[in-house]
Amino acid sequence: MTQAAPPLSGQDAPPTRSGRRFSWAWLGLVPFLAFAAAFLIIPTFYLVVGSFHSPTGEPTLQNYASLTDPQIADAFFTSIEISLVTAIVGGIFGFLLAYSVIAGGLPGPLGAALMTFSGVASNFAGVPLAMAFTFTLGRLGLLTIFLGSIGLDLNDTDFSIYSKLGLEIVYLYFQFPLMVLIMAPAIQGLKKEWREASENMGASTAQYWRHIALPILMPSLLGTMILLFGNAFGAQATAYQLTGGTLNIVTLLVSRQLTGDVLNNVNLGYAVAMGMVAVMGVTILIYIWLQRRAARWQR
Amino acid sequence: MRWSRLAWGIIFLIGVLYFFIPLLATFQFSLGNPWGPVGAPPSFEYYITVLNSPQFWDSLGYSFVIGIITIVASIGLLLPTAYWVRLKVPRARPLVEFITLLPFVIPPIVLVFGLLQTFGRPPVPLTHTDLGSSVLLVAAYTVLSFPYMYRAIDTGLQATDIRSLTEAAQSLGAGWTRILIRVILPNVRVALLSGAFLTLAIVIGEFTIASFLARPAFGPYLSLLGQSAAYEPAAVSLISFGLTWLAMIMIAFIGRGGRTRVAVTGAR
User: Fold this and answer.
1) Residue A133 has pLDDT above 60, yes or no
2) How far apart are CA A8 and CA A211, in angstroms?
């Protein structure tokens, strides 16, 4: 029955056929499961249950119906819009950047430098990042003053770094480096032979991209963009610091609920939080599905 | 070919500018905005003010200690679990993997919301005391570390023949604790150290959870400083950037020669 135990190789490990009997070995997982239950599962469950109850404790679906209130719906739409825009723009730019150093013929050391910078920039988020952009594009920001000196006064335009567009510009600072980091291995995985083979058969660069490279890269491209979407959707600190918590996006709506109870109904707050979890859940499911497809080419 | 190289060069240049201009702007603000309309001569006095301020060191020290405790808690929890799943209960793998990925689905703001509601009242009113709140903070950061820490450890274990190592250690009379600390841990130390530095970088800059738990941490300190001072926040931001940079350099240094793994750490 038990063959000479093969080296445990992850998912490939054959399921142990010990039947349905309870195995004492499960007890070894108790510390982890208890910790996760106490600090992750039960708190989330608390929100779930609360979202289906009225403030007086009766079961209700009213909280979910209230998600369509203009202010709440607008917060969701704005969050989704910001996440989409920064995922797509950051994704495309990050991809081009990664491609420029790997296959675009730029000198090798630039590639190593880009990867290092990307590692730092993708982790440089939150309060200091928001501040850095205030110093750059705020009223007295470096770039604002520079542009003013060449006749383009941002303060005369509608542009404000504290707006939705401003927040998108700030988010891009950690979005495209993350894209670079994740896409670089996928681009390196494009085999030279594929390009050579297509050229031998008379394909142009455009044809190579359209019929070979892009279809291969597409799952990882889209998958990473979805990751970027989730990255922006759940972000709170950066937006809070930049806009003083005033922008109507969903993470700040929950923040305001936590500090001042703007919704006057904590149960509605639970439903908003559950709405966020639902959006993130769908995001992750699509991501997992695309990862499976991408894995076929990454050998 | 020449033209396409130029196009790639332009894209690269845009990336470089995007990366450096905000840093340059922060740097020149930290010197008192010498290029600004007032044009005071550049000065390092704001760095000196910050470095002489007890709040700076207190909050940085607090976040550092919380970071270290989080690392110990995270490794102490996840290393035995990942090891045990591989060795004894492979059937539990989908469950454990699912739980370690949950923090991706539950954004920090939602997590802290749930924690405040659960532990803000009896039977376990952790938020009512400073110590309790700090315990909750460590617990929340440990949860946030699950996705990348578990994957790093699990990948490390995959490359190790833990079954043979365990049997060898057992035949020499080692108990489980000894096996984990003396035999398994050294085999995954690269993964653990990378995860540790990443955790430190994240915890030191974290704002959302720390501020809602009202902890005297570095993120809330910087945020408050931004409301009360003009140039000091720039100095602190740049110091914070330097700390992130340092952590990333350590990770690159530890993992040199190996395949660089990208750790997606979630929203901030």
Assistant:
1) yes
2) 39
Query: Over the stretch B227-266, which tens digit does the pLDDT of each residue have?
Result: 888 899 999 999 999 998 898 888 888 876 555 556 667 6
Q: What DSSP letter does each residue of A10-54 carry, written as one string?
A: GGGSPPP--TTSPPGGGGGGHHHHHHHIIIIIHHHHHHHHHHTB-
DSSP letter (8 states) at residue A59: B
State the pLDDT at residue A7. 42
Cβ–Cβ < 8 Å for A169, A137: yes
pLDDT at A13 over 50: no
For tokens 């910078």, the residue is A117
| pLDDT, tens only, A245-261 | 889 999 999 998 888 76
Question: What mean pLDDT comes out for the span A72-87?
Answer: 96
Domain tally, chain B: 1
Identify whether the C-beta of residue B201 lies closer than 8 Å to the C-beta of residue A89.
no
Would you say residue B47 lies in a domain?
Answer: no
Look over chain B and give the mean of its residue pLDDT values, rounded to a whole number.
Answer: 90
Which helix (H) or strand (E) covers residue B167, if one does?
helix B162-171
A147 interface with B at CB cutoff 8 Å? no
Pick the CATH number of A62-295 from 1.10.3720.10, 3.40.50.1000, 3.30.1360.60, 1.20.80.10: 1.10.3720.10
Cα dihedral B221, B227, B231, B237 sign: positive
Q: How far is A292 from chain B (nearest CA, A)?
A: 16
Chain B residues whose CB is inside 8 A of the A140 CB are 33, 36-37
Chain A residues touching B110 at Cβ < 8 A:
44, 47, 254, 273, 276-277
Name the minimum distance, in Å, from the CA of A238 to any CA of chain B: 6
Instruction: Give Dmax over CA atoms of chain B in angstroms.
Output: 76
Residue A285 near chain B (CB below 8 Å): no
What ipTM, to 2 d.p.?
0.91
- Which is nearest to A272 in space by CA: A256, A289, A294, A293? A256
Whether residue A3 has pLDDT greater than 70: no
